[in-house]
Amino acid sequence: MGRYQAVDRDSVLDAAELIVRTRGIAALTIDAVAKAAGISKGGVQSSFGTKDQLIAAMYARWGTEFEAAIARQAGEEPSPMARLRAYIEVTYRTDKAEGDRAAGMMAALLNAPEHLRQFQQWYASQLDGIDMSTPEGRRARLAFLANEGLFMLRSFGFMKMSEREWREIYADIRGLLDDAEGRKT
Fold it and tell me: How far apart are CA 107 and CA 121, in angstroms?
C-alpha cells in the first residue's frame, strides 16, 4: 500500500496562479490545477475543497504578502499618510510578474461576489485615518486613486508605457503625497 504524500499548498497555489496569469480565470479548474501541480484532483480538493475556496486561498496569500511588504516599508506604527506612502512605494516596485499575478487575482475576484466583497472592504480600509474633508486628505485620496489606476492600466495591458514613463508618473504621484503631507518637493 502506498504512503500518503503530503500536498504542498504553496506549490498548488503557485500552479493555480500560473494558470490564471497565463490562461485566464476561465481555465482555472480543480483538474487543471492538479495537472499543473503534478498531484491528483483529490489532492487539490483535500487541501482546498472547492474552486471558490482555492480562489479564496490565492487571494489570502497574495493579500498577506502585499500587506507584509507595506508593513516593512512603513515601519512600526506608521501614520495613515506614512502607510499610504508605503502602499504607493510597494506598488511602484511591483515587477511585471507580480503585476500579472495581481491582475489575475483581480479578474478572479470580480467573478465571485463573495470574494469581491472582501476586496471592496480591503480597498475601503486603505484610506482609513485620512481626513477627506481637508485639501491634504483629498490630495492623498487622489494619489491613491492615481496609483491604482496606473497599476491596473499597466497590469491589464490597457496602456503601454515605458519604464521611464512609469517612473515619471510615480514621481507625480509622490508629489501629490508630498503636497498632502506639506513636504517641499
Answer: 17
